[in-house]
Structure formats: C-alpha cells, structure tokens
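Figure 2 data, in text form.
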Amino acid sequence: MPSATERKRRWALTLACGLACVLTAGAAAGQVCVNRRHTETSLGPFPEAVRESARISPDGRHIAYVLSQDGKQKVVLDGKEDKAFDRVAALTFSPDGKRLAYAAQSGEGWSVVADGRGQGLYPQVGRPVFSPDSRTLAHVAMLPDGKRVIVADGKPGKRYEMIFEGRIVFSPDSQTMAFGAKIDGRWHLVAGDRRYGPYDFLGSATGIHFSDDGSRVAFAALEGKQWCAVVDGRKEKLYDNVGDMVLSSDGKRLAYVAQTGGKWLVVDGGKEQTPYEAIGQGSLMLSPDGARLAYAARSGQRWRVVVDGHQDQEYDGVAEMQFSPNGKRLAYTVKTGPAEMVVLDGRPQRIFDAVGGGSLVFSLNSQRLGYVARNVYARFAVIDGKRKRRYDMVGYLNFTLDSRLFVYVAVAEGKTFTVVDEQEAEARYDAVWLPPGEKLIFDTRKRFHYLAVKRDEIYLVEEETD
C-alpha cells in the first residue's frame, strides 16, 4: 500500500489552486429540482503572491496569510493586517475557527502571538496547538539554557531536557495535555498529572492516543532494542517494531501494528492476527463505534483488505479506506492493472482510469456512497454507482445533512462553481478554497459555505437550497 506521501502524489483533486464549467441547459430527467440562493461576503484582497502562505480555518469561514513588506512580515486575517515582525510562521487556527495563533520573531527572540497578543519571548518556540474546545493554547519553548518548557496560555510550566518532537496532544475532552519529556537522560510520557516511564525512546509514528474522556492513554515505547505498546503505563508484549495504533473512543479497544521475525501483524485486544509481509501505513482503522477493525495487508506483491479478521479479495494495490457513519459499511479504493475502482461491502464497483484520492464519502444515513473518478481527461462524480456529468475537475464532494442531495465543486473553461444534484450554480469564480481534507461544509440541512477567489479578492460564499 502506498505511503501517505505517495498517495498524495496520485491523481489528486487539488482544488485550492482553482476549480471551473460549460453550462448545460435544462435538468436531467428524473433529477431533483433544486432552487439556489447565495450570498458573498468579502474577506479582503487575496493576491497571487500570498496564496502559498494562506491558511483556512477548520470551519471554512476565515483565511489568514503572511504579507511581506519592507523587510518585515505581518499576518493578514480576513483582510485585516496584524502587527509587523521580523518573521512570522506556523499560522494555526483554533478548531472552532474563532482564534488564530502564530510564531513571530522580534530581534533574536520568538513569541507565540494569539488573539493579537504575544506570549513571552524565547530563543525558539514550537508550533501553537489549540485544545479541541479552542480554549487552551499551548506550545513548546526553548529557554536560554537550552531546557524546554510547555507554555500553556502564556504560562511556562516545568523545565525538561527535551520535549519529544515538540509534539503536544490534547485529550478529546480538552482536559488533559500529553507530551514526551526527557528527564535525567531518559524519556517519559507526561499526561496531565500522570507520568509514565522511563523509556529509552518514544514511538514517533505511533503517536499518543486518548479515550474521549482522557482517562486512558496509549503510546509506544522503546525498551532496549524492542518496542512495546503502553496503555496507562502498562507495557504490552515486546516486538521488533510498533507502528500505527488506534484506540476506541471509550478506551476499551486498542489495536496496533507490530513487527516480529520480519513479518508484520495487527494486535487487537492483545491477540495477534495473521502475519503479513506488510501492513499499509495509515490503513489501520476502527469503525466510529469501535466495533469493527480494518486494515490493508500485503502478501507477496498483492494487497487485500482485512475486515474483522476476514480477508477480502486480493488486488494490485489498496488506497483510501472509509467506514460509513454507522460502522456497518466499508468502502475502499483498489488498483487492478492500470485501472482503479471502489470496493463497497466487499463487492467491486465500476472500473475507471483513476479514483480521486480522498474523495470517498458516505451520506450521514450510511445508505449512499459518492466519490470522484477519471477516465482519460474527464473528471466526474460517481453517486450510488452512477457516473455523473463530466468536467475538467471535480472535488469537495459531499452529501447534504439529510442525505438527500449530493454537492460538489466543478471546474470548466477556467471557471469554478458548485453543483447540487447536477444543477450548476450561476456564480462563477476563479478558484474555490476549503480547509485541507475537507468536503463542502454544511451549516444546516439546506445551507453550505466555502471560500471563493474572484479578481484577486476572496469571499465567504454561503449557498442555500430548497
């Protein structure tokens, strides 16, 4: 299975650089008639030179970028310029999109600026990290003596020899902050007022995993020359290596990838599954309710998906995998010879030249599946197994909250617009921008929004359907 980086290099729908279409008169027979209304709110100028630095808020309503002028740099948020610094970096929005933080250099020192105010001055600072509820802001800072501290809401904490990879992880309930810390030459995992260790090293690829309430924490640690999963300080079996890890939201189910004797296998609830030559990086996943487990595995040169211990059919490659919201259905993309197709509930669907990376989407009621595909140069949405109208580019595919309509962004003849159940919006733009990895974002059953560029200005566009 390709790595995450390799998958990004696949035929991808990089719509942030511009999505646009040939008008087709009339509605297709049998399609839903959709009335459309939209409003535009300017978020200020958006020249070509600043777009590489631009960051979009997770809610898709705000945009910030770095403006360089007269040897200085400043952040521009929704068209409003902030204070100038020698250098700014690491622009980060809070999960609710209402706060912006970034690192700023003044002279020889760095600070984290949040809500327009700087927090301390240090030789170096790490990337800002917001808690899931957006209330707490934390970052790593280096002190003049080389020690590291975690700075939370402007207040520096305990000094450590090193903070592991500058990584800070919050529990989903925002109540617990975790990080790796080097103490007396050895590594510990600090989670709130709990400290686990010492260990020889911590797992970089494995990460730190919390249950929803923050009561359980899992990670990987090096003991001598072998690795083990650690759950609430309890070490599991030692292996040659430990890779991807998943923890259910209730904390009751832990699964991870481990290597032993040159083979890779999944350990689920302490029980080892069938060994393979490789387990797809990033493929290990639990269904939303934690009841089902799936991953991609390789035997020889052939890949298959393993679901709840059952081996699906072999293919030349396996890419994106997606559980439905209710966890009862699984869709994934496979490569078969020079072509690609989607497999739904173990059954192969139509074959295309390529399937768009990251485009698989289930409706909220779990009954419908959509994705984007390509044949030769034409791109199109595939909804419930049926190929829709062709465009130069298609992306950001999603379903309305009631699962009734499908919505996407299309490009044709250099212009970009939205399509709702094959009915094209009249408004045309130079490009449409959404947060990385996001689909079109719905606020209510009838209303969705996105950012759009028109003549070097960016707008928040809100559309409503009847």
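Caption note: The longest helix spans residues 4-8.
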